[in-house]
Amino acid sequence: MSVTINNPQLSSISKDMYLRMDVDYFLIQQKYDLTHMKKMREYITFLESGKSIKAEDYEIGTDNIHITVRNIDDSSLNLENAIYINDDKADELSKYRLQVGDIVITISSNCGNSFVYDEELPFNMTLSHYLCRIRIKNDLLLEKYLILFMQSSLCKDYFRSVETGKTIKNLAQRYIYDMPIYVPTAKEQLEIINKATPILFDISNLKLAKKSISSIVDKTFEEYFKYNYAKFDSLKEKMFYSSFLQCGNNVDARFSAKFQRPTGEFVYHELLNRPNKKIKHCLVLPMITGQGIETTDYDESGNYAYVSMADISSWELDLTDIKYVSNDYAIRKLTKKIKGLKTPVSTEISVNDIVMMRSGEGGIGKVAIIKDDVKGIFCDFIIRMRFDESVINPEFAYFYFRSQYFQYLIEINKKGLGNNTNIFPNQVQEFPIPDIPLSEQQKIVNMINTEIYKQKEIEKQIDEKKNEIEKMIDKILK
Hints:
Strands 2-10-7-8 form a four-stranded antiparallel sheet, with helices on one face. The protein has a four-stranded antiparallel sheet with strand order 13-21-18-19, covered by helices on one side. It contains 16 helices and 24 strands. α8 (213-225) runs antiparallel to α16 (438-477) and α11 (262-272) crosses α14. The protein has helices at residues 10-13, 23-31, 87-92, 143-149, 153-162, 174-177, 186-209, 213-225, 229-237, 257-260, 262-272, 327-333, 394-401, 404-413, 425-428, 438-477, and strands spanning 38-39, 44-49, 64-67, 72-73, 76-77, 83-84, 103-106, 114-116, 124-127, 131-136, 180-181, 276-278, 288-289, 304-307, 323-325, 335-336, 345-346, 354-357, 367-369, 376-378, 382-385, 415-417, 420-422, 432-434. By secondary structure, the protein is α+β, with helices and mostly antiparallel strands. The longest helix is centred in the last third of the chain and has 40 residues, at 438-477.
């Protein structure tokens, strides 16, 4: 094993406003000749970071989208699993909305990933505080060329060398200004763009060929259980008539259109007409909500992560932006007293637990299965389910919870007005779950995972195309 020793001078450390002295920062200066490159600040006319929002700002079905790190996909905007916010918050952030020509750059997690907003969409779009946007002198530097250049090895190495953070990587805006950039003539930039266009077209076609996990899940459940999704869809679209007498058909005297709609009765009939059990009869621990928190309880040096709704909003536990809590908080909050039980229940997450968002129109009902052995406590806006694995395969339950029928049960049973809607453990535990042998559950899981694997193969092809672009840009830098 060989060791390389670097002896940077103090004068080289002083060149950086943050006095950086980590090895990556010096290695990149040895790997590339940056002294003859220009800096991005020569071309930037505007730079602004995004704004943070809270869970109560979520509201599905509006025209207001708050873009986060996960919405930047392969140097393009991907609005799948977008976060929608209510009109009041959108109006508050109106002066921060994206404009055509803005270039969006991530300054947390996957630092340096970017896209150009080159076509106006019918949404009011604002940015998470983990993103920033810039505008450039496009008579000198073309936006599309810049996006291609930022896929080069040089840019990737540069952002890795200047980002900071132990778990979550962050980027100071200063390093956007100081980013080295090679700017050929406008004609040469156009030639590079034209050469990359067919590759980008191939990437777009590959993305169109991909199927979403939700569509794979629904098709599999529809075929296996013979669910009548066609009738389900038609009932959702039809008008119906009700009367005050029907308000007494439930203990809460619910009279909302969603609750009384015949579609809900149809879904219950579909689920209850096949072998089923109530979810509460399949658990090894009571279904519970998590722990509340104060801002002073966060501590990045703590040993326990704090799983919030935002961390599972992509239907999986996303550790990139997760926050940590103080060890003192963790000790106090590792268990929770439940009414009717003598022994407190653990509020730690464990592998194969399923966690569900229980509040907010932007994601109520979304679930994630814990696959990583992470020490963590879940928040009070999350419901945790821990299944008896001799009865229910947790992965089967996870896919079932993603199906249209289960999500519709959430839709008609949630309570509250506007964005302040909630679903509670005492409701969810009464929902039915298919009662089939573990072997059949595994068969369904395998069918779904086989299709998901095919999508991963498409993703590999996309990565190969992206590498073509990276090599093309690297070539012009040599």
